[in-house]
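Before we proceed, please read the two lines closing this message. Report back on whether the structure tokens fit the sequence:
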Amino acid sequence: MESVARSQPAIEADASPKDPTLIYRQSRWTRLTHWLWAFSLFFMLLSGLQIFNARPQLYVGKQSGFEFNNTILEIGAENTANGPRGFTAILGHRFDTTGVLGWSGPPGQETPRAFPAWATIPSYYDLGTARVVHFFFAWILTTTLLIWLIAGLINGHIRRDLAPRVSDLRKLPRDIVDHAKLRFHHTREYNTLQKMAYGGVLFVALPLMIATGLAMSPSMNSVLPWLNEILGGRQTARTIHFTVMVLLVLFFVVHMLMILAAGPINELRSIITGWYRTDPPAQHDEPTERSV
């Protein structure tokens, strides 16, 4: 996820090259939070899949078990006439996912497990280690996001750079067409699609993931007893948690594709060094920036 706090310190701005199209776009704090979030989400994803393997079903409601018919997702393995096969069942529809989900491993050494070894941390089954890794990076993500939110409200960054304005909404149809045609503009400001995408991640997806994670923790029941009720019970919270994870993975995939399509060198330079090359002023009439 591209960083969303921008500043231009005087010292660093003075070091700007004479090329007017090269601007200092990402502050040190922006780049630091970007990579902290990226690394945290990476380890949380892979350790979370290991935790999911301990009970590879998702339910809706406060309870689950044999007497309940509220399973919406199940990944498992079963014996068939052709040998063990992996399957994934979504809302009652079953799909053969042998080799990836349910039944996977090196040829001749396959084992029944929801997500394969290469997609989990640790690769072998160890629920305790997975929980330690998951919670460690979850607290890093939560703390960084909270500090970023407070700082963004104080310095006006959220209002100035992320909150969509009426003018942004008017540009939305053109932004959609430009992205569909892979026509990207390189300016300092975020365009409407970027504001909506980053706002959705930072103010909806990540807070919801944190809230559902807290709701699943038995130790939080005494501290926040109402949270579990609001989210529809622990099993529903777990399903929401998993769904948000899938949405974040999809966001990451689109994010990477947009970076590749719009110019990876410029984007990587921006998020590593802070310097970003913009279009010459005459190249477009209204300043809109590409979505990455």
